[in-house]
Write a structure and sequence with these properties.
This protein has one domain: Immunoglobulins (Immunoglobulin-like, Sandwich), CATH 2.60.40.10. The chain is about 15% helix and about 35% strand. It is built from one helix and nine strands; from the N terminus they run H-E-E-E-E-E-E-E-E-E. Strands 4, 5, 7, 8 and 9 form a five-stranded antiparallel sheet that branches. The longest helix is centred in the N-terminal third of the chain and has 19 residues. It starts with a helix and ends with a strand.
């Protein structure tokens, strides 16, 4: 009986350790897909972007499409949610198409909430995402 209790305790301890590990944040200027894997050639290249000017009901996100890849970028912007790992399946703000620097203005946000976001760009090959960034609106 003691052996079973020890095995359960060890299993619980290992589960806690495994779940508390964080995925390292990497600088991204190369194309990556929704899961953070290299997307391959022909995809756009983007930066992670940054959030500035955070208010109680909004903020400003700045991003950049460094290269359009094999086809013209027809949509770029930032996608966001409340739980992390956002994708185009969630909310988004589009900044149009093309390459270069862009900004997305958030408004109507809830004070004191954490928002998770990722830059994205889409061309004929598909969509790539930057690293996740987050911010908390002012209470």
């Amino acid at each position: 009986m003691k052996s079973l209790t020890q095995q359960i305790s060890i299993t619980i301890l290992l589960a806690i350790l495994f779940l508390s590990c964080e995925k390292p944040s990497l600088e991204r200027t190369n194309p990556f897909d929704e899961n953070g894997e290299t997307a391959g050639t022909g995809y756009p290249q983007i930066t992670d972007g940054s959030v500035e000017d955070v208010y109680s009901n909004g903020a400003v996100f700045y991003g950049e499409v460094i290269s359009q890849g094999a086809g013209e970028v027809y949509e770029k912007g930032v996608c966001y949610n409340f739980s992390g790992n956002p994708s185009l399946s969630f909310m988004r703000i589009s900044a149009g198409g093309g390459s270069g620097k862009y900004e997305c203005v958030f408004s109507g946000m809830l004070p004191g909430y954490t928002y998770y976001l990722r830059a994205y760009a889409t061309n004929e090959k598909g969509t790539v995402y930057g690293n996740e960034v987050s911010f908390v609106t002012v209470e």
